[in-house]
Amino acid sequence: MNTCKIVVADSDSKSREIICGFLKKKGYLVHTAADSSSALRVSRSIMPHLVIMDVNLVGGNAYKTARIIEDDKISNVIFITNKLDNFFYDWLKTMNIYAYVVKPLNLEQLFQTVEFSINNVNRLNELKTKIEQLETSLKNRKKLDRAKGIVMKMLNISEDEAYGYLRKKSMDMCISIDVVAEKIIKKYG
To answer: Is pLDDT at 136 greater than 90 in this prediction?
Structure first.
């Protein structure tokens, strides 16, 4: 059973009903919104995996609402449109997912776009996590190298001996070597 939460934001109740019914049959947990403010409110309250938003949503500019949803890291947005023009394509290029569906809706195409988008969002999130881990690792490595340099200079020892010194301090103090390096940098750097 699919546990992905989707917000369907469409001012047309008939269209909203068709999309929601179809997505529920596919196993998604579906929430609805009929205007921009309720789309934002519902999205903030449930933190959905995806928001499907009609560009003609009443109560405000759908593009600005989508931008808020993405900038606040609430979710990602797929647009529903019946008008493909340069403005739409230019706006779409600024979104996290370059995806949209065209009215009249082909429900199978909608399903494929939703699946594709959720898979890409998951992949992007995994990559972001890996990047953050690598950046942290690199930052810690730089700290460790700087602390080794300080220890080498202070104690007139080799790089290997300085690393051994830092490692021993880490074990003696029961803290990570990164914290030891940070303390040495703050005190002597």
So the answer is: yes
